[in-house]
Amino acid sequence: MHRARNTKSKRAGGARRDARTPRRARHDRFDLGSLNAPQLEAVLHDDGPMLVLAGAGSGKTRVIIYRITRLVRDGVPPGQILGVTFTNKAAREMRERLTELAGPRGAEVHLSTFHALGLRIIREEREAAGLRAGFCIYDTGDQLSLVRDMMRQTRVADRRLDPGRVLEMILSAKRGRLAGVEVDHEGDEYDVAAAELYPRYVAQMRAFNAIDFDDLILRAQDVLAQPLVRERWQARFSYMLVDEYQDTSPDQLTLLRALAGAKRNICVVGDDDQSIYGWRGAAAGNILSFGKAFPGTREIILDQNYRSTQYILQAANAVIQNNAVRKAKRLWSAGGDGEAVEVVACGTGDDEAAFVVDRIQQLLYEGARADEIAILYRANVQSRAFEELLALERVPFRVVGGQAFFERKEVRDAIAYLAVAQNPLDEVALRRIVNSPPRGIGLTSLERLVQHGENTRKGLWAALVQAGSVDGLSVSAVAGAAQLVGVLAPRARRLRAAAAGELSRQCQELFDQLGLRDAILTADDAPGISAKRLENLDEVVRSIEMFERQSPAALLLAEYLRSSALTQLPGEDGEDRQARVTLMTLHAAKGLEFRYVFLVGIEEDALPHRKTLEEGGDLAEERRLCYVGMTRARERLWITWARRRLRYGRLQERAASRFIAELPVGAGVTTHEHDTSGVSEEEQDQMAQDFFSRMRDRLGIDD
DNA sequence: AGGCTCTCTCTTTTT
DNA sequence: GAGAGAGCCT
To answer: Does residue A529 surpass a pLDDT of 80?
Structure first.
């Protein structure tokens, strides 16, 4: 095995990269000879369950694509193959690479997210799933609105309880298919509130003909519990492949088992060391006990890494091996050692930002592209200091994630109008739009209408239709209701029946008639803002057009609404040709790779996050997060922390993360100080060395 | 109904 | 220190 030189020129680095990243090659040609032994074994495996433990950068996706292509080449009808991913993005990527490798037949393979798969089953088995036609899907925002409304209405919890937390409790009871929420501690307001609201939540969802994201999995599971239905679906898919298996929940596993049936041709691919979504229901245990769920499982380990240098892998391995419960594997690479991983102790948060931005500028000066560089952190707030300095220094950058997407009120409103047109029982949507744009129906009037709707058992929409006979409404409210009903009712039927080609036009007309554009223009936002919001509104109509073009004609509106709940509308800067430095959370970075990576703010309370430590959370998951971050780096990795940091408005003393102490300093990892507050270099070095020997002592690690 | 001030908290996030 | 949300005031 040749050892690439560590220090030499960019050219060497470039050539080496080409040689060892065949999986990213532009035109991947089907060539079994390009696979390593375990990869080949996974691709050639015939029938029966298989678990592929794919370490970071081990060519995981490529194995999936190759396996599918191989099955198709061996005569399996592509329509009989089901590939399941977690995100739309992953599904899209897989589709592209598959069509490239397998040709047009690759397009016939079913690739979908878990939730889209659930929806498909529920849609086709709607009655068995206990739903009426035109049912709608509630996203997290809708769920929260519902919980807030319920809290207001029942008064059970009108004090300052966090609706999100109440919702979380309701959902976890629902996931566990419990009859109710248990009141563990007599006095606990949250227990009491959740116990009271749980049955109401279920009843409301039923009344609104709505299901939430969890229901997509749970109801599909219910439907498949019926033998005839199950057999039908089992017959449809003869081979299943599941990506990112470490992120599956127990419910998803149940669904998979039902689909796999007696054939058990199920291949799951994942990495227990990259399980970082335990907090949202993923069961890392799924991957560890896959062999129990499917006896006779063939287990394959992909531990050859094609991404990072030896030093980076050694450092990452050293950290992750401190996790007690994991599948033993150790990433290795045929590449060279590369440059040492640098741990940088900074004086303050400002020093840290200065160091990172300075290094970035140096890299750019040496010819690196900005999009080969990433700054990764635990929590979104940590991006601030880096954003500011990068902006000041005019280094192009983009911040991934945050919220932004969510709060496009005008988009949500427009969609809510369509949702009501489709399903007048959808009261979350109806409440949202009833007074937006303003029609004189304030909170008091709305509550009266809701009450009337409940009393008559006909719902809010019916109450609006007969607003004239509802007690205690103001004249303006009655007029407002009449106006809303007058516009929406006659259009609703035509919208529901609209075929491809007319739906988008009709929506546009509806929006105009409702005065959505005017409302945006009248609102006294800054001119730039209202222009943006108008654009967003147009974007809605455009997305409907897109949908019309690629969908079969029947029930277009209902399908559009459901699919828009499952796929985020495209962000603003989809196509951006300029190379930019990427700033994002460690979570968001999973699955990506960069030539140069800065892991910043690696301090106690931040990387093992305070909350995890306090709330008896999962320290191992924090360590995996660190591992995920480190393994994003191809060539160079910096890990930085600050001794003092301005937080919550005050200067805080900080300690390096315990994960830093787990690094093999001296063996491909170097440390140094970056403190501008006037300490001499010798002192700084001494401090760093002292720090590490103290840390090692404390943790009982040999030098 | 809307705007203002006070108070509280301060992960991660896809579907 | 900053943003969100509740409550109070006009």
So the answer is: no
